[in-house]
Amino acid sequence: MKIARATQKDECFLERIQHGEADFPFRFYKEDVWEFDFHCIDWHWHPEVEIVYAEKGDIECFVGTEQFTLAQGYGLLVNSGVLHRYEARESVFMPNIVFAPELLGTTSGRVYHKYIAPIAESALSYLLFCPSVGWQQEFLQHLLDIFRLQEQENTEMQTVSSLLGLWRQIVVHSEPVCGQAADKGRRAQLQVMMQFIHANYKRQIALKDIAECVHISESRALQLFRQGIRLSPVAYLIQYRLKRAADLLESTDKAVAAIAFETGFSDAGYFCRTFRKHYHQTATEYRRKIRS
Questions:
Q1: What is the chain's mean pLDDT, rounded?
Q2: What is the sign, positive or negative, of the torsion defined by CA atoms of 65, 66, 67, 69?
């Protein structure tokens, strides 16, 4: 049976679900990106570390400020607190694990401060693992062993031991990461601006308003959005309004024009054209299809 994560997020794009249990913050997922809405796992972040394996097919990845294709057979580590998104052009099987760094050592202990924190709390956004590179091939093999462990019961000790083995390889082979404070500051600014959009999308807001919520210039806000999520702030605002409109089309019987105005569009005609361009169907067709 496939296990897939929920995709609920709060207004800051922080995933609201708990990965694993409070006393064992680890979860193994079996997911096909193609099966998610619009064939993507949309922008989100979590305090846990995530390690993904492209078992079947290629995955389009957006991590931090980077966009790349994770080819079949490759692995990806997404660090704690980093915004990321996955897309697929066909069925793509992507088993993955999500775990809290403190699972590997208590935060007050020497192991955590010496080996875990320098990576988990650094500016490092992600690491790629290639099957043709010796130590990375070994890393991927150990990752697959962890996946297989999850099919058994009472494997918590073996799982933690294997995770520590993976982490040791990262520590040994990864160069020190600099610029921690600046990078995390940029992430925080981006997430606050996203939150501002989520809270104010129903009213008319401009780039100036978005930038002012974190006390930066409009050009800097534009740069942060384009680096972080490959969209301008205004384009993201429109996309977010469309998503909220899609929710109302599914959950209410309100007229299309009423939904347009409720979600911040001042012109119903413009809303209909934009909705069709984004969803490749009219709002009425979308409502009929999603309800059936």
A1: 88
A2: negative
